[in-house]
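Re: duplicated header lines in exported structure tokens

Our pipeline writes sequence and tokens for each protein into one text file. With two proteins the header for the second block appears twice in some exports. Here is an export where it did not happen, for reference. First protein block:
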Amino acid sequence: MLRRLLASAALLAAVLALGTAAVACEEEEAPSPTPGRTPAAGAATTPTPAGPSVEIVSPAPNATLPAGDIRVEVRVSGLQVVEPTLTPVPGQGHVHFYILRPDQQVPTTPGQPAVTAQGTYHATATTTHTWTNVQPGTYKLAVQLVQNNHTPLQPPVVREITVTVR
């Protein structure tokens, strides 16, 4: 009889412990939002992945630079930078560097190669390019992320700055 009483007490203690643990877990869970309602301000949301982006690290916008070689450095995110090929692959592409007159535009026509006149653009799988023997004047330095086949991403990802060369 004593054994039966001890077994019942142990079983009761186990059931109570499990019940207490279940209640504690329920209290820690955040309530689910009501369908059709916006979560309250400050509530955690799942971030949307950002698309590809590019930033010109150097030179600085509106910089005055000495004539000669001009090195442009960019920072790319959200895109695997690879050597140009003929076949677009989602998530891959390369960088086009441009040196243009201030009134010229970077080509962004969908489905068309994003190239300008010979000597004014450079396609590469690197994040730096040096323009050589740049003569005095005002220039637009631009960079565009493009697909493997040289066509612009959609939407286009372009950054540009103006520099003066003396």
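Second protein block, exported in the same file:
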Amino acid sequence: MICATASIGTFWVIVGFHLLIVALLALDLGVFHRRAHVVGMAEAALWSILWVALALGFAGLIYFGWHWWHPGEPDAGPEKAFQFLAGFLVEKSLSVDNLFVFMVIFRYFGVPPHLQHRVLFWGVVGAIIMRALFILAGGWLISQFYWILYLFGLFLIYTGIKLLFSVEEEIDPGRNLFLRWAQRILPFVESYDSDRFWVKRMGKWHATPLTLVLLVVETTDVMFALDSIPAVFVISTDLFVVYTSNIFAILGLRALYFLIAPLLGMFRYLHIGLAVVLTYLGAKMLAKDVLWHWWQVEISTAWSLAIIGTILGATVFASLLAGPREVVKHPPEAVSLAQPEEEQARTPSADTCPTDGEAHKDPPAQP
């Protein structure tokens, strides 16, 4: 049964949770990243530790304080905390596997390193809004049609098998339909002289390349959500747990990118671990009622958390033993932003976006 927490205590916890998130995001962009700069590994590591520590602290609050705002469930705290941690771990792991897509997007558009944080920041804000809408919609569907959870289970098994046996596919942001649409209707400049998304030129507002990059990042995240949200709903049907675990995992995505983007090649077997985890979660959902009906057996969330952690830990360890590989063997070349790719083939342009390493090595002078 879907659990839509709606007590007065839960209301204030959710208000406090959002106030904390807004304050941290404002501090991040308004203070620490007020001026665009290249995020180093040390800075990214500190932010990553902060976000993980906050998530663990929030899990502790659920563990010991659940009964404060749910007096009717005085013993549910440990189970809810384990559900939160399992959802957080799954979402975070899926994010790691998807980080290389952001790397390809930045390379394709030739985004200068000092502007990448700004794109990811607003990408995270957009992802939070979209995830909230998806989770609310998913929660409503489950409350009306519980059997949808079985579809989630089948979908996770399908996704896991597909991920396990998939071969490397060429990733080409130029095929993004929203990007082609924006290229046709939006007036924009092709330079990265400004760190803003919109600039005024000759009395008219023009989009900068950052707008197109953000558009591709946001639409790509929608596809990521199709895998991660069903997985967390299989772990827990409590909207509070599903939502907060997703948000905490997403908030650390920017710092995680700058921390491990140069090291993504070291996680060569992570996709195998994720495939096994997704298949396990799907099978667990499908077998849940059967196991309980015939044998009164239920796989606890604590056991699931241990199983997920063991699988991911083993694949990371195996990856480190095997050594790194090239993350993107055939990266798409950066092209002119002024026209869709098919029009560029007919109309050559002298002004193309710089490829990785050609330009924008240093931040441009502030206007």
